[in-house]
Amino acid sequence: MPFCSGFVCILGRPNAGKSTLLNALVGEKLAIISPKPQTTRNRIQGIVNLPKSKGRDAAQIVLTDTPGVHKPDSSLGRKMMVEVREALEGCDLVLLIMDATRKLDQRDEFAIQMLQHSSTKVCLILNKVDLLRGGKAQLLPLIEEYKKLHAFHAIVPISALRRDGLDILLKEVIGALPAGPPYFPEDQVTDQPARFMASEIVRERVLMETEEELPYATTVIVDNFEEGARLTRIAATIYCEREGQKGILIGKKGAMLKRIGTSARLQLERMMGTKVFLELYVKVQPNWRESRGFVEELDWRRQLENLTGARAEPSQPEHLPQSQSGRRIDAKKSDRKKIDAKKVVRTVRRDERDRVPT
Ligand code: GDP
Ligand code: MG
Questions:
Q1: pLDDT single digits (tens) 20-53
Q2: CA of 116 to the centre of ligand 1 (A)
């Protein structure tokens, strides 16, 4: 039996359960999970290594968690759309994840239309079936309805939260992947640098500790990241849009910021395996979401370059444009895989490797 490997892009509306699924599959907490929609702004990759088992080949699945497909309405939104398109172009399979408890609407149809323009296979996942009171009787008509919209490679009902249906899903996914060697070393769980994950963790704590109005008005940038054998020093700035929000984030006598800092630090210590000294700052940056330059700075690769003094990656062919995740996006399907395999591994810089949780 051959080994299969490929890039699988998880697509779906905010709140459909993309991050929950990604985390369930990877078995590590990578993306932000929050009841508030649209918390995953950047693509986060997880890697699933599966041994051969009954009825399925051994495989490596490289998962990308994309921001939700939606119509662009600001600079941030447009950046997201570009990311979604890039993600589609570069992957072997799309997992379109839908909340089975919600009625299809225009935006869903918009998402499915986007997929029809690409030649990539699409597997439809109907998530949250644990919430369907009608069970199968409710599920079957839903499946029929979706079948009319697109020639899906497969339709798989699951509960990402309860991890139901994941085996069947994996079987379908692996069946759709091309044969080929793994892209990443076995012990690799994510290719996101620890620094970027640190900003995601702080942002998640902000979302969890503060109320409704704040989440979309905040973003976090890591200003300093120094890793030692026993202690990691991290300084990060939480950006918000108004003075009032800054007040909420800092709280009475700094109580809120302290709470955010403490819970973020505990999580960071678990991720890093060292003690963490975390300094948090809050700054007001009006309308950051509309500012193109600022949105671009959110890109982790750019952040990383700023932090490390623009250390370029060696031996990358210059004529090939890079997507934001460092993968080539323009290659023909046939030759893409070979070149990617080398490059992706190279993209995970040796010095980052040790920092990534396994
Ligand atoms: P994303 O925006 O698509 O990444 O969605 P999340 O993974 O953040 O999930 C959004 C919300 O739906 C969270 O509160 C999850 O706990 C919840 N959720 C995700 N999957 C399931 C599921 O299978 N069943 C139930 N009941 N809730 C789920
Ligand atoms: Mg998410």
A1: 888 788 765 555 444 433 334 445 457 788 888 8
A2: 25
pTM value is 0.59
Q: Hey, whose CA ends up nearest to atom 24 of ligand 1?
A: 128
Closest-lying ligand 1 atom to the alpha carbon of residue 131:
26
Residue tagged 């997201």 (tokens): 80
The tens digit of pLDDT for each residue in 279-330 reads: 999 999 887 777 766 666 665 555 555 554 443 333 333 333 333 333 332 3
Pocket test for ligand 1, best of 65, 161, 169, 203 (most atoms within 8 A of CB): 161
CA of residue 234 relative to chain centroid, distance: 22
Ligand 2 centre to CA of 292 (Å) is: 23
Ligand 1 within 6 A of CB of 99: no
